[in-house]
Protein backbone atom coordinates (compact mmCIF):
# COMPACT_ATOMS: atom_id res chain seq x y z
CA UNK A 1 0.00 0.00 0.00
CA UNK A 2 1.28 3.40 -0.91
CA UNK A 3 1.80 5.98 1.79
CA UNK A 4 -1.31 8.02 2.54
CA UNK A 5 0.23 10.46 4.96
CA UNK A 6 3.49 11.98 6.07
CA UNK A 7 4.54 11.38 9.63
CA UNK A 8 6.59 13.94 11.51
CA UNK A 9 9.47 12.05 13.10
CA UNK A 10 9.90 14.78 15.70
CA UNK A 11 6.44 14.76 17.21
CA UNK A 12 4.51 11.96 15.52
CA UNK A 13 1.90 14.23 13.93
CA UNK A 14 0.35 12.84 10.76
CA UNK A 15 0.06 15.23 7.83
CA UNK A 16 -2.29 14.66 4.93
CA UNK A 17 -0.19 16.25 2.21
CA UNK A 18 3.19 17.68 1.36
CA UNK A 19 1.67 21.15 1.82
CA UNK A 20 0.51 20.28 5.32
CA UNK A 21 3.94 18.90 6.12
CA UNK A 22 5.51 22.14 4.88
CA UNK A 23 3.15 24.16 7.06
CA UNK A 24 3.94 21.94 10.02
CA UNK A 25 7.66 22.36 9.36
CA UNK A 26 7.29 26.14 9.25
CA UNK A 27 5.28 26.25 12.46
CA UNK A 28 7.39 23.83 14.48
CA UNK A 29 10.82 23.68 12.81
CA UNK A 30 10.35 19.91 12.64
CA UNK A 31 11.85 18.40 9.52
CA UNK A 32 11.95 14.60 9.77
CA UNK A 33 8.99 13.60 7.64
CA UNK A 34 8.55 10.12 6.31
CA UNK A 35 5.83 8.50 4.27
CA UNK A 36 3.36 6.59 6.39
CA UNK A 37 0.56 4.14 5.63
CA UNK A 38 -1.35 5.36 8.68
CA UNK A 39 -4.19 7.50 7.40
CA UNK A 40 -4.93 10.80 9.10
CA UNK A 41 -8.19 10.23 10.97
CA UNK A 42 -11.21 12.02 9.60
CA UNK A 43 -14.04 11.85 12.09
CA UNK A 44 -16.91 14.02 10.93
CA UNK A 45 -19.45 15.31 13.46
CA UNK A 46 -22.93 14.27 12.33
CA UNK A 47 -24.50 17.24 14.09
CA UNK A 48 -22.48 20.07 12.59
CA UNK A 49 -20.13 18.49 10.04
CA UNK A 50 -16.92 19.50 11.78
CA UNK A 51 -14.04 17.25 10.71
CA UNK A 52 -11.75 16.05 13.49
CA UNK A 53 -8.39 14.50 12.71
CA UNK A 54 -7.82 12.73 15.98
CA UNK A 55 -9.75 11.11 18.80
CA UNK A 56 -8.50 13.88 21.06
CA UNK A 57 -9.96 16.48 18.75
CA UNK A 58 -13.35 14.77 18.52
CA UNK A 59 -13.43 14.32 22.30
CA UNK A 60 -12.72 18.02 22.68
CA UNK A 61 -15.49 18.81 20.21
CA UNK A 62 -17.89 16.65 22.24
CA UNK A 63 -16.88 18.45 25.40
CA UNK A 64 -17.37 21.87 23.84
CA UNK A 65 -20.57 21.28 21.93
CA UNK A 66 -22.21 18.18 23.36
CA UNK A 67 -22.15 16.60 19.88
CA UNK A 68 -21.35 12.93 20.31
CA UNK A 69 -21.93 11.25 16.94
CA UNK A 70 -19.03 11.04 14.53
CA UNK A 71 -18.80 9.24 11.21
CA UNK A 72 -15.42 7.79 10.40
CA UNK A 73 -14.60 9.05 6.92
CA UNK A 74 -10.92 8.29 7.22
CA UNK A 75 -10.75 6.05 4.17
CA UNK A 76 -12.65 8.53 1.98
CA UNK A 77 -10.26 11.33 2.79
CA UNK A 78 -7.05 9.32 2.52
CA UNK A 79 -5.25 10.04 -0.71
CA UNK A 80 -1.92 8.61 -1.76
CA UNK A 81 0.85 11.04 -0.96
CA UNK A 82 2.71 12.43 -3.92
CA UNK A 83 6.24 13.36 -3.04
CA UNK A 84 7.07 14.48 -6.54
CA UNK A 85 7.35 18.18 -7.06
CA UNK A 86 4.59 19.45 -9.32
CA UNK A 87 5.82 19.42 -12.91
CA UNK A 88 6.22 22.75 -14.60
CA UNK A 89 7.23 23.26 -18.18
CA UNK A 90 10.07 25.52 -19.21
CA UNK A 91 7.87 28.41 -20.31
CA UNK A 92 5.97 28.53 -17.04
CA UNK A 93 9.19 28.43 -15.07
CA UNK A 94 10.75 31.38 -16.85
CA UNK A 95 7.52 33.31 -16.57
CA UNK A 96 7.50 32.67 -12.84
CA UNK A 97 11.07 33.87 -12.65
CA UNK A 98 10.05 37.05 -14.44
CA UNK A 99 7.19 37.60 -12.02
CA UNK A 100 9.51 37.05 -9.09
CA UNK A 101 11.84 39.73 -10.47
CA UNK A 102 8.97 42.11 -10.98
CA UNK A 103 7.70 41.65 -7.44
CA UNK A 104 11.08 42.69 -6.06
CA UNK A 105 10.61 46.28 -7.18
CA UNK A 106 6.90 46.16 -6.45
CA UNK A 107 5.33 48.95 -4.52
CA UNK A 108 5.06 48.24 -0.80
CA UNK A 109 1.61 48.39 0.71
CA UNK A 110 -0.10 47.57 3.97
CA UNK A 111 -1.37 43.99 3.60
CA UNK A 112 -5.07 43.38 3.45
CA UNK A 113 -6.33 41.77 6.61
CA UNK A 114 -9.69 40.93 8.10
CA UNK A 115 -10.93 44.31 9.34
CA UNK A 116 -13.43 42.85 11.79
CA UNK A 117 -10.64 40.96 13.54
CA UNK A 118 -8.47 44.09 13.60
CA UNK A 119 -11.34 45.92 15.27
CA UNK A 120 -11.73 43.14 17.83
CA UNK A 121 -8.04 43.39 18.62
CA UNK A 122 -8.27 47.16 18.91
CA UNK A 123 -11.11 46.75 21.38
CA UNK A 124 -8.75 44.57 23.41
CA UNK A 125 -6.31 47.46 23.50
CA UNK A 126 -3.84 46.57 20.73
CA UNK A 127 -2.72 49.26 18.30
CA UNK A 128 -4.00 49.11 14.72
CA UNK A 129 -0.46 48.51 13.48
CA UNK A 130 0.13 45.68 15.92
CA UNK A 131 -3.24 44.11 15.17
CA UNK A 132 -2.66 44.35 11.42
CA UNK A 133 0.86 42.98 11.70
CA UNK A 134 -0.20 40.08 13.92
CA UNK A 135 -3.11 39.20 11.68
CA UNK A 136 -1.02 39.32 8.52
CA UNK A 137 1.88 37.28 9.86
CA UNK A 138 -0.37 34.70 11.50
CA UNK A 139 -1.99 33.97 8.15
CA UNK A 140 -5.00 36.29 8.44
CA UNK A 141 -6.84 33.32 9.87
CA UNK A 142 -8.32 34.00 13.26
CA UNK A 143 -8.18 36.29 16.24
CA UNK A 144 -6.73 33.42 18.21
CA UNK A 145 -3.79 32.98 15.84
CA UNK A 146 -3.22 36.73 15.82
CA UNK A 147 -3.13 36.88 19.61
CA UNK A 148 -0.75 33.95 19.74
CA UNK A 149 1.46 35.83 17.31
CA UNK A 150 1.36 38.94 19.48
CA UNK A 151 2.28 36.94 22.57
CA UNK A 152 5.30 35.52 20.76
CA UNK A 153 6.38 38.78 19.15
CA UNK A 154 5.49 41.26 21.88
CA UNK A 155 9.08 42.37 22.28
CA UNK A 156 9.88 42.72 18.57
CA UNK A 157 11.21 46.25 18.01
CA UNK A 158 8.88 46.75 15.04
CA UNK A 159 5.77 45.18 16.58
CA UNK A 160 3.90 48.50 16.50
CA UNK A 161 4.89 49.41 12.95
CA UNK A 162 2.45 48.87 10.13
CA UNK A 163 3.63 45.82 8.17
CA UNK A 164 4.46 46.41 4.49
CA UNK A 165 4.36 43.81 1.76
CA UNK A 166 4.84 43.98 -2.01
CA UNK A 167 1.63 45.24 -3.61
CA UNK A 168 0.78 41.95 -5.30
CA UNK A 169 1.28 39.65 -2.31
CA UNK A 170 -1.62 37.33 -1.68
CA UNK A 171 -2.08 35.70 1.68
CA UNK A 172 -4.29 32.67 1.56
CA UNK A 173 -6.26 32.19 4.71
CA UNK A 174 -6.18 28.61 5.89
CA UNK A 175 -9.60 27.09 6.40
CA UNK A 176 -10.78 27.71 9.94
CA UNK A 177 -10.78 24.48 11.90
CA UNK A 178 -13.38 25.68 14.36
CA UNK A 179 -17.11 25.87 13.76
CA UNK A 180 -18.57 29.39 13.92
CA UNK A 181 -20.04 28.68 17.33
CA UNK A 182 -16.74 27.38 18.65
CA UNK A 183 -14.99 30.42 17.25
CA UNK A 184 -17.45 32.66 19.01
CA UNK A 185 -16.90 30.87 22.30
CA UNK A 186 -13.15 31.16 21.81
CA UNK A 187 -13.34 34.88 21.12
CA UNK A 188 -15.55 35.34 24.14
CA UNK A 189 -12.96 33.51 26.20
CA UNK A 190 -10.13 35.67 24.86
CA UNK A 191 -12.07 38.87 25.48
CA UNK A 192 -12.73 37.69 29.01
CA UNK A 193 -9.01 37.03 29.49
CA UNK A 194 -8.07 40.43 28.11
CA UNK A 195 -10.61 42.09 30.39
CA UNK A 196 -9.29 40.26 33.46
CA UNK A 197 -5.74 41.22 32.57
CA UNK A 198 -6.77 44.84 32.27
CA UNK A 199 -8.56 44.73 35.62
CA UNK A 200 -5.51 43.22 37.28
CA UNK A 201 -3.36 45.89 35.74
CA UNK A 202 -5.69 48.58 37.04
CA UNK A 203 -5.69 47.08 40.52
CA UNK A 204 -1.90 46.97 40.46
CA UNK A 205 -1.70 50.62 39.41
CA UNK A 206 -4.18 51.50 42.13
CA UNK A 207 -2.03 49.76 44.74
CA UNK A 208 1.03 51.61 43.52
CA UNK A 209 -0.75 54.93 43.64
CA UNK A 210 -1.84 54.03 47.17
CA UNK A 211 1.75 53.23 48.12
CA UNK A 212 2.97 56.49 46.61
CA UNK A 213 0.39 58.43 48.61
CA UNK A 214 1.47 56.75 51.87
CA UNK A 215 5.08 57.54 51.19
CA UNK A 216 4.42 61.24 50.87
ZN1 LIG B 1 6.31 17.69 14.32
ZN1 LIG C 1 -20.45 19.10 16.07
UniProtKB/TrEMBL annotation:
<protein>
    <recommendedName>
        <fullName>UBA domain-containing protein</fullName>
    </recommendedName>
</protein>
<dbReference type="InterPro" id="IPR009060">
    <property type="entry name" value="UBA-like_sf"/>
</dbReference>
<dbReference type="Pfam" id="PF24560">
    <property type="entry name" value="zf-C2H2_OTU1_C"/>
</dbReference>
<dbReference type="InterPro" id="IPR013087">
    <property type="entry name" value="Znf_C2H2_type"/>
</dbReference>
<dbReference type="InterPro" id="IPR015940">
    <property type="entry name" value="UBA"/>
</dbReference>
<feature type="compositionally biased region" description="Basic and acidic residues">
    <location>
        <begin position="181"/>
        <end position="216"/>
    </location>
</feature>
<dbReference type="Pfam" id="PF22562">
    <property type="entry name" value="UBA_7"/>
</dbReference>
<feature type="region of interest" description="Disordered">
    <location>
        <begin position="159"/>
        <end position="216"/>
    </location>
</feature>
<dbReference type="InterPro" id="IPR057766">
    <property type="entry name" value="Znf-C2H2_OTU1-like_C"/>
</dbReference>
<feature type="domain" description="UBA">
    <location>
        <begin position="112"/>
        <end position="153"/>
    </location>
</feature>
